[in-house]
Amino acid sequence: MNLTKERIITLLAVIANGILGATIGKFSDSRLWEATFAVLMSLPGMLVIWNKEALSVTGLTRGLRRDSPPSLLDLIGWFFLLVMPILYVYELSKL
Which of 11, 18, 24, 69 has the smallest CB count inside 10 Å? Predict the structure, then answer.
């Protein structure tokens, strides 16, 4: 497994999500729980970005192998990495 620029950036984004979860989250008494929640919400996005080559192979359609576009998987991965954790922590803080 090569550690590319994109993988380093995703790791930094997961760490930043943990820090942001601990600072803006107010749904629990423990800051550690809020940071852990934000990091766990970031992991699906990180996994999609890191494994987009394996996820792009979708199988056979009418006898032809069709692949998903990697840019679509990037978009889905970055959405799950950046938007979902912050949205969940913010919405849970309003409760």
Answer: 69
Question: Can you tell me the distance from the alpha carbon of 13 to that of 49, in angstroms, rounded to the nearest whole number?
Answer: 12
Question: Which tens digit of pLDDT belongs to each residue from 51-79?
Answer: 888 877 776 666 666 777 788 888 999 99
The HSE-up count of residue 73 (CA atoms within 13 Å, CB side) is 18
DSSP letters spanning 11-45: HHHHHHHHHHHHHH--SSS-HHHHHHHHHHHHHHH
The token duo for 81 is 């990495």
Residues 6+ apart with CB under 8 A from 73: 48, 49, 52, 55, 56
Q: pTM score, two decimals?
A: 0.79
